[in-house]
Structure formats: structure tokens, C-alpha cells
Amino acid sequence: MRDPDGLIARAGVRGDPDRDQHFLVDDRVLDRLPTYLPELDADTTHLLEIGGGTGVLTDRLLEIADELTVVERDRTLAAFLREEFADEIAAGRLTVIEGDALEVELPPFTASVSNLPYGVSSEITFRLLPEQRPLVLMFQQEFAERMVAEPGTPEYGRLSVSTQHYADAELVESIPKEAFSPPPAVQSAVVRLEPRDPDYEVDDEEFFLRFVKALFTQRRKTIRNAIRNTAHISGLEEPDAVVEAAGEDVLQKRAGAMAPAEFAALAQLAANVSEIGDGQ
Predict the structure, then answer these.
(1) From CA 108, how far away is CA 39, in angstroms rounded?
(2) Which residues, 6+ apart, have CB-to-CB distance to 129 below 8 Å?
(3) Cα separation of 50 and 29, whole Å?
(4) For a Cys-Cys bond, which of 4, 9, 14, 126 suits 25, CB 3.0-4.6 Å?
(5) For the segment 109-167, what is each residue's pLDDT rounded down to a tens digit?
(6) Confidence at 40, pLDDT banded by 50, 70, 90
(7) DSSP per residue over 240-254, as a string?
(8) In this predicted structure, what is the pLDDT of residue 18?
């Protein structure tokens, strides 16, 4: 394995908190990350890494992948990766894409293991989740806890429902600040996301996710009031018709107590009794 500090030295760079650059340098953590892929059904034919940095994780992923694609937005680091891993590129085992992971065309991939740029981790995650591939991703600890939270807990919210709509989410390891150079201001955590088909039906996924977003903007209100107060977000043309059609047991709840399946059932009901616009 290539030494993390040696890679940073050869790259001639330093982490920059202002640019959301914190390089993972703990060998033990780096060695564990690929092992969090699901053991029984992880297909490592073509792995994807977002945010290659100096290549510390890239080096580990090449040990288990037939083919690896790395997306790196920093021009200097992308050039370094092409130089440092020239042999692997020449052998057709590694492709380095220079660009923003939210804008570039991603290749077909079988799984992703990535230390995401925290500033855009949510946007990148929700670009990857609909691909229905196993993901092992690193986030800020608080963000990770919200992803895996269960109904009725303080951390449970829109992020929890949206994440768990696509995958079973598990926080598999917390990472101390000292594992990075320079250390970030917050602790980090690794989340394993195993794709699954939800145990409920959603005809209009875009509306479902927007409806969840709308109701959580008023999480302290009852569902009855939240439906009425957030039609400008959800796009419901007739929120009162939804309230009239919904059961009283649901209307008295608050968003933080609603399981994903309950949101789905309510969204289906809403779509059946009200016209739906674009919303916000």
C-alpha cells in the first residue's frame, strides 16, 4: 500500500479547509473502508470513487477492483493521480475523470466507496442512490446519524426518509478528526447503503420526495396543519381535500413520528384526491 503521507508529499499539496479538502491519512481506517462493502453480493467489477484526492483510497480500491473510475474536481490532484497511477491507467484498470461529480457523466459502476467532499455530500449521495448500487460513503458524523435515524428520534427527518427510501442505511464506523490532515472541525462517520426496493408503492417518486420535504418544514405541526401550510412546497392544488380524505390517526401525528411507508401512503392518497403542480 502506498503511504498516505508519502502521497501527499509527492503531490506537493496541503489540505485546505476553505476548499473542503481534508486528506484521510490513517492507514487503519483506509484499510477498513473497502471491507464495508456487503460481503455476499458486492460486485467489484467496476468501482467508483468520488473525490480521489491524493490517491490514498484509490490505492486500496485497486486491490479489490477489476476496474476503478475516480472523479476528482481539483485539476492539480487529477493530474497527480494520472502520474502516480500511470501503470494502472495504461493497463486499463483505472480511469481518472477531472470534473465536478455533480456535473460529469458517471460511468456504469457496480459499487462506490468514497470519502465525499462534505460541502456537497448530500447532492452527490442523492445522485448515486437512484443508481441502486452498494455504497460506502464518508460523511460528517451528524449528517450520517440523520441518514440512519429511526422515526421518533430527534435526528429523524427528511434526510432519513429520503435515504431509506432507496437503501438500508447503517452507520458502520465513526472516524476521529485526527485521522485527517488537516483535522476537520467535526467528527466523521462511514455509512453503508445497501440498495433495496421499498416495502411500499410510490407512483410519483418526485412528488413523494417533495411531499416529505414539505411536511418536514413544519415538523412541529400536526400533519393536518402541515399539509395545509405547505401546499406551495408540495405542489398540492387542493390540500383541504387531502386532509378530508386522510385518517384522523395520521392527521394527528407529526412528521418526526411518521415512518417512510406512512409518508408513501399519504403521498399516494394526496395524489389521488388533488391535482399536483410543480411546487418549490
Answers:
(1) 21
(2) 135, 163, 166, 167, 193, 195
(3) 17
(4) 4
(5) 999 999 998 889 999 999 999 999 999 999 999 999 999 999 999 999 999 999 999 99
(6) low
(7) HHHHHHS-HHHHTSB
(8) 77
Span 57-83, average pLDDT: 97
Helices and strands counted in the chain (H then E): 14, 9
Cell 411507508 belongs to 261
pLDDT above 80: residue 279:
no
φ/ψ of residue 254, rounded to 5: -115, 160
Non-local (6+) Cβ contacts of 44 within 8 A are 37, 64, 65, 66, 110, 111
User: What is the C-alpha separation between 153 and 55, in angstroms, rounded?
Assistant: 38
> How far apart are the C-alpha atoms of 102 and 173, rounded to whole Å?
26
- Residue 16's pLDDT is what? 78
Distances (CA, A) of 214 to 4, 99, 140, 152, 202: 44, 32, 24, 18, 17
pLDDT-derived band at 19, boundaries 50, 70, 90: confident
Q: Locate cell 497511477: which residue?
A: 85
Q: What share of the chain is helix, strand, coil (3-state, %, to 5)?
A: 45, 20, 35
Query: DSSP secondary structure string, 199-228?
Result: SS--S-HHHHHHHHHHHHTTTTSBHHHHHH
Residue type, 5: D
Nearest 5°: the CA angle 69, 72, 76 is: 130
SS3 category, 278 = coil
Give the contacts of 72 (CB within 8 A, at least 6 positions apart). 51, 52, 53, 78, 81, 96, 97, 98
Q: Of 234, 261, 266, whose CA–CA distance to 248 is shortest?
A: 266
